[in-house]
Amino acid sequence: MAMHTATMETPLSDGHAEWVLRAYQRDGTTASQPSSAPVVIKFGYTVMHFLEDRLVEERPRPYHTFVFTLGDFLHQESRRRAISTVLLGAGAYDYDICFRWQLERHLVPFCDDPVEMAFNLGNGIEMFVDVLLMYFPSDEEDSLDVDGAGGDGDFGGIPASTDAVKELAVVKYERGGDVREESCIICFEELEEGVEVTRMPCKHAFHGGCLTRWLESSHVCPLCRHAIPASADP
After folding, report:
1. Domain residue ranges of the chain, discontinuous segments joined by +
2. Residue ranges of the RING-type domain (predicted)?
3. 73 phi, psi to nearest 5 deg
4. Which of 57, 118, 160, 185 counts the most CB atoms within 10 A of its CB?
């Protein structure tokens, strides 16, 4: 069984969400090509509710496990794409959408040292992301932030306008064509030759149904956060 070395822990906080990031080098996983070494990310939640002057913890949930290669983490663009895949797959949007953006901003640079060390040693990495979510009676009101962006003004849980969604381009996917993606980052399924995909103004494309559901919760691109017109305030 792989041994763990070079433990790194980074406690961070953002309002009602807190998280601890841990990265371990995996001895015994030396790869012939360093970029092919595995990067295993385990994402777990602990959810607490403040009810009637006491804290109630939800039933513990199993880790969501994601497997990449070290090559996916060597460059900032592919690393952000991998981390976005983790946060989407782990259901971060099912909770407070604002904390996800802050977590991504911390997680991307956190990987710098573990990735460099793993590449030099030819080892894999095992990473744990442990999130504590605290829900208070005022959470619903707090989530209606005037910026809708958790303090940064460019990301938040504001749905896209119906008219803007209708105006998105629908094209057929062809390998080697104008669509750069090979899979839909929302559902993680590969794009099949000839299937119709919906494309954002930033040119990122997704399955039409997947993107429509996404835009019902957020008016920004899942990959690059390019914004389209948002729905009117209620």
Report:
1. 3-140, 158-234
2. 184-225
3. -115, 5
4. 118
Which residues are paired to 14 by β-bridges?
17
CA–CA distances in Å: residue 14 to residues 45, 79, 97, 103: 15, 22, 12, 8
Instruction: Tell which residue, 192, 34, 216, has the closest CA to residue 205.
Output: 192
Q: How far apart are CA 34 and CA 144, in angstroms?
A: 45
Element (H, E) at 98: helix 97-110
Q: Which two tokens stand for residue 7?
A: 């433990």
Residue linked to tokens 């976005």: 84
Give the pLDDT band of residue 41 (cuts 50, 70, 90): very high
The predicted structure's pLDDT at residue 233 = 44
- Is this structure's pTM higher than 0.70? no
Rounded Cα distance between 155 and 153, Å, is: 6
Q: Which pair of structure tokens corresponds to residue 81?
A: 């794409």
Rounded Cα distance, 135 and 133, in Å: 7
Residue range 158-234 forms a domain whose CATH class is alpha beta
**To which H or E segment does residue 45 belong?**
strand 38-51
Closest CA relative to residue 194, chosen from 178, 172, 169 = 172
